[in-house]
Amino acid sequence: MRLSKLLTTAIAVVLLVFDVAATQAQQIPKIRVAWVVPQGNWASVLWEKKDVMRHIGKTYNVETIRFQGTPLMIAALAAGELDIANLAFSSFALAIQNANMEDLRVIGDEAQDGVGGNYSVEFFVLKNGPVKKIEDLKGKVVASVGAGSAVDIALRAMLRKHGLEEKRDYTMVEASFANMKAMLAEKKVDLVPGVLPFSFALSEVANTLFTVKDALGGSTQFVVWAARAGFLQKNRAAMVDLMEDAIRSARFFLDPKNHAEAIGIAGRVAKLPPDAFKGWAFTEKDNYKDPDMLPNLETFQKVIDAQQQLGFLKVKLDVKKYADLSIVKEAATRIK
Question: What's the predicted TM-score (pTM) here?
Answer without folding.
Answer: 0.87
